[in-house]
């Protein structure tokens, strides 16, 4: 599916005030940006605007302020500094969002200039999509650009609000994210192998359902596998399980059969007697999990099976670790699958906070075709939902 909204390429930005919602919601440590991935991801749009002589006004949230006024430790100033450092551009920061000081900084902005406003969530009306907030922000711009993929699933004042008052376009990050994450359902190169893991079936129901419709093979790992085991009648000992979802897991297995989507479940597992850093693993087959053991990772025979499936794939989508990868002794399954994806020529698309953390931990990020910057937003796309921020943009 091609992207169906207008992008910043379609807008005349020369000399005009372009209000851009970016996602600079970055982790901070000691007052500095600890991980600049999200800032880097916004640079293509910001560079384009500068090169086309726009007056660029950037806004974002950061963290979870109370919404009753400024909280210095959640200021966007470090993000503005990081943007200046990464691009070499002059970047002005103003410690105001909705007041006269912000308006004055916007008015002083020259063509080619870049201004970063203070955290939009210092006023709690932003999250409520209050029209006063939206109008105030819209008054700063002639054009609105949404590039904050990570918050595009939230109908909030700075995300969807300005689109009611200004012509609204997508930035390059938003375009690429939506295009990539929807095209795997429209016309994937086949075989299309989807890998879903992580802790719970319940949090991934929509994702699993939609993937079954499209994937040739669905690989299940992580804690959610044990709820599928229950559906198959295996006992799972003290493994993570969701009794209320067993029936649904069984339905999914049947739906996959009917649709011709092959589901792979672990054939062996690394189990431990408790959940902890000091726990040691032993390998057991999936129908042999002792009552006093819990599954912590996929076992070696499963690793082989899954890596073989990945090797034959043209498209791989991966969300959710294969085991408790935070503990080294239970990270082998996740690492082996990540390496198989990295070593393959397939188009590889990764989504989900913990999956991305795992890939970074193994140093494999640059071997993947696309790593989504949005957790919740990417999952909603993979569930087949429309994102309110995207919906509000002009149709192409
Ligand atoms: P993502 O953020 O990539 O979408 P999730 O949040 O769904 O992934 O799941 C990640 C978590 O699942 C990790 O913290 C990991 O430790 C946990 N997990 C994986 N396998 C197991 C397991 N067998 N038992 C308990 N927790 C698990
Ligand atoms: Mg997670």
TrEMBL record:
Keyword Transport attached: no
GO BP, sorted A to Z: gluconeogenesis; glycolytic process
Pathway(s) per entry: Carbohydrate degradation; glycolysis; pyruvate from D-glyceraldehyde 3-phosphate: step 2/5
Catalysed reactions, semicolon-separated: (2R)-3-phosphoglycerate + ATP = (2R)-3-phospho-glyceroyl phosphate + ADP
A GO-annotated cellular component: cytosol
GO molecular function, one term: ATP binding
Subcellular location, record wording: Cytoplasm
Binding site for (2R)-3-phosphoglycerate: 38, 121, 154
Residue numbers binding ATP: 204, 295, 326, 352-355
Sites where the protein binds substrate: 23-25, 38, 61-64, 121, 154
Documented EC number(s): 2.7.2.3
Domain of life (superkingdom): Bacteria
Predominant subcellular localization, coarse grouping: cytoplasm
Keywords of the record: ATP-binding, Cytoplasm, Glycolysis, Kinase, Nucleotide-binding, Transferase
Self-association and partners: Monomer.
Family statement drawn from the similarity comment of this UniProt entry: Belongs to the phosphoglycerate kinase family.
Name of the protein in its database record: Phosphoglycerate kinase
